[in-house]
Specification:
Elements: E1 2-8, H1 10-14, H2 18-28, E2 31-38, H3 42-48, H4 58-65, E3 70-77, H5 80-88, H6 101-105, E4 114-116, H7 120-130
Antiparallel strand pairs: 1-3, 1-4, 2-3
The protein binds cytidine-5'-diphosphate and magnesium ion.
Length: 153
């Protein structure tokens, strides 16, 4: 089982798309093991987007991501990090394939609705940035035996 950190970004909350997009992750069989509405501070933005903090476009990203509440969540599932990234599609909504979340809902390079960790190291780092261990509530869904065969671990 893998865990990945997702953010429903401020554009997603403002456009009232959190429920519809969360439903896609639930439909896929991913397990929500933590979730909260919160505001990202400039300091948290710089930590989260450390790899981009020196880029020319970073100030506009920080203004966007701190400009309204986000919903942070942890999704759990087999190969969840890759699976969720593929469900999002390419960064730029204008280039993301139809059928992906960004391809279906976003027409922007910046306002692309959802963030997801891009690898195991990023997932561990980002989960620790957004959640304390007592905020994470792992559980075995009762439907688990109907989501995959018992030898598919
Ligand atoms: O989110 P993803 O990993 O697909 O993209 P990224 O290249 O790591 O960039 C992080 C975020 O910065 C994107 O999701 C966009 O919201 C934003 N961005 C931007 O505002 N302007 C750019 N030229 C590129 C990305
Ligand atoms: Mg990225």
């Amino acid at each position: 089982m893998e865990r990945t950190l997702i953010l429903f970004k401020p554009d997603c909350v403002q456009r009232r798309l959190v429920g519809r997009i969360l439903a896609r992750f639930e439909d896929k069989g991913l397990n929500v093991v933590a979730m909260k509405l919160m505001r990202i501070t400039p300091e948290l933005s710089k930590q989260h987007y450390a790899e981009h903090a020196a880029k020319g476009w970073y100030p506009t990203l920080e203004k966007f991501i701190t400009g309204g509440p986000v919903v942070a969540a942890i999704l759990e599932g087999l190969e969840a990090i890759r699976v969720v990234r593929e469900m999002l599609g390419a960064t730029n909504g204008l280039k993301a394939a139809p059928g992906t979340i960004r391809g279906d809902f976003s027409s922007s390079r910046q306002m692309n609705l959802v963030h997801a960790s891009d690898g195991p190291e990023a997932a561990a780092r980002e989960i620790a940035l957004y959640f304390r261990s007592e905020e994470i509530c792992g559980y075995e869904p009762t439907i688990a035996t109907w989501l995959r065969a018992s030898d598919e671990s």
